[in-house]
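User: Predict the structure for this protein chain, please.
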Amino acid sequence: GVGGEGCLGALVRGPYLQNATPGGITLRWRTEAPAPSVVFFGATPEFLYQVAGNVEPVTEHIVLLTGLSPSTRYYYSVGSLVESLVEGEDYHFSTLPPPGAPVPTRIWAMGDSGTVGLERFGNPRQIQVRDAYLAHTAGHPADVWLALGDNAYLSGTDQEYQTQFFNIYSSILPNTCLWSTLGNHELYSSPKDGVFPYFKIFSLPTRGEAGGVPSGTENYYSFDRGNIHFVSLDSELLIDLHPAEMLQWLQADLAANTNEWLIAFWHSPPYSKGSHDSDDSFGSDPHLVWMRENVVPILESYGVDLVLSGHSHNYERSYLLNGHYDYSTTLEPSMIIDAGSGREEEEGAYRKPLTGTKANAGAVYVVAGSSGWATYQVDPAGHPAMFFSEVQAGSLLIDVAEHRMDARFLRDTGVVDDWFTLVKGPMDESFRLSRPVVRGERIRVQWTSRVGSNYQLEWSPRLDSPDWQPVGDPVTATGTRSALEPIPPGPEAGFFRVSELPPPQ
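Assistant: Here is the predicted structure, written as structure tokens:
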């Protein structure tokens, strides 16, 4: 219970939401002077009839609310028993739905965001990325907010977090629960009593209270929202100290998971040719290689659907991949489960069956490390596993509704530059030739196929009295879709068809 009273200090930070569960949530804020930690909450902003907290004067306020109803919005105020620091319609949170419930979920993922005020190092776009998100999601904000590390440059100090994170997202933090993962820049500050500021700023689940297997550490953890299982991993600190413990926990956590969707996020991407190179095993980035070689195989064996990372200050998005754990030069066509765009209006959505031997096959890997600035790519051609890459600032929005996931890269300008869809369910066995897509000076043609079958792409300048001519060599299908990028047939209009060749005698 609460009782007594104390003088309120000026609000310095927050309030911000942490560690949401179906039955509770943690509220945090900071005051300039020591003050009580009291939260009033209820069903409407005008009727806050429940109270929690304590009256011990502190400056760092952490209040856990429990006994709440799932899938429920609550409004709140923070302060003392007789005076509030904040209250009103903007101060609310929603408890998570019951585990496994297929409720629509919107996710906002941003990486390497904390760049405001660093014009001397580049072209900060943090505020523009934030404003593009707010404008695009007006009336439908995110349910889950993922921070992919390097949230405050240059060293992740408490003061940098104040100016480059809490001050910048002050309208989002009071009503959207934030889940973070550790970046390398969070480790450039000086730990106090052996603890980096990052771990004092966030309250992340360690006991399995938000779903999943208890991790015992904030370096890595998991949580559930409806039928989505989220896994946050440490790609920066523990892999140089005790990586076996994290891998053992990951195996146990994924083995216990029964949710349909699996999303993993950490800082250093397994595939990238942005401002960091995932082929760099001997330079400054061995963590990228380590995560690809040691973590990705475990995740894929349990059917991971989406992997989110930052670190490289650009945007990169892969094809639907499975089984690529080596350097970029070793990528084989069989490792690309779907070589299409993943766009329904072009070559069709990526698809995964819900059951069967192929239910675990295929994940999309996204590098979203340009939420603060976009710098460069070490290879202008990009990583061969990537369908799309560009040096532009932005963030990623993901909508999951039962068996469907839609993702889009939202630029700082408000324009959507890339998008894809992943659908789970019965696989479409019928033949489909997608609309040809012009890419630079080439045309990409894709069609559904059966593994092991041989196909010939053909072209004719007309359909009445057609004159079908072969384009390229026959294609042997290694996945459910095959593709060929022929040179354009010329300035006149033309038509494509695909013929299935008889098996060799």
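The chain is about 10% helix and 35% strand.
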